[in-house]
TrEMBL record:
Name recorded for this polypeptide: Fluoride-specific ion channel FluC
One of the record's GO cellular component terms: plasma membrane
Organism the protein comes from: Mycobacterium sherrisii
Residues reported in the UniProt entry to bind Na(+): G80, T83
InterPro entries per record: FluC
Family: Belongs to the fluoride channel Fluc/FEX (TC 1.A.43) family.
Residues spanning the signal sequence: none
Compartment(s) of residence: Cell membrane
Membrane topology: Multi-pass membrane protein
Metal-binding listed as a keyword: yes
Source lineage: Bacteria, Bacillati, Actinomycetota, Actinomycetes, Mycobacteriales
Pfam family, one: CRCB
Length: 133
């Protein structure tokens, strides 16, 4: 942590807190009760997080000055706190251990492809709006 701007770290902390609270709230509303269920909360936050990161990277982050604390707050903080690769992996492990092999494969593929689509769609939308302006 030597050499890091404490305000930047605080911005990441705040953004991460907001993202984590949103993820936790969605997990409460859409709990995956058993390993045979699609883990909607994790899936949604990962796809939405990828979309937001694509948006922030393409739109906001290119326009903000390097010293802006919005960059780390929104990208590393909010999107990092919102998304959860590790929970996705645990969900897949539980599916495999419960012999839900097809569901595990579908979930893994849908998560990766959905995240990529989210990021590409966000970038394309921002670029199209920017070109029209």
């Amino acid at each position: 942590m030597l050499g890091h701007d404490r305000r930047e770290l605080a911005a990441i902390f705040v953004g991460g807190g907001v993202g984590t609270v949103i993820r936790a709230a969605l997990s409460t509303v859409l709990p995956a009760v058993n390993p045979g269920d699609w883990p909607w909360a994790t899936f949604i936050v990962n796809i939405v997080g990828a979309f937001l990161l694509g948006y922030f990277t393409t739109r906001l982050l290119e326009r903000l000055p390097v010293s802006s604390y919005l960059r780390p707050a929104l990208g590393t903080g909010l999107c990092g706190g919102l998304t959860t690769f590790s929970t996705m992996q645990v969900d897949i492990l539980k599916m495999l251990e419960s012999h839900h092999y097809r569901l595990a494969l579908e979930y893994a593929i849908a998560s990766v492809v959905g995240g990529l689509v989210g990021i590409f769609v966000a970038a394309a939308v921002v670029r199209r709006v920017r070109a029209a302006a």
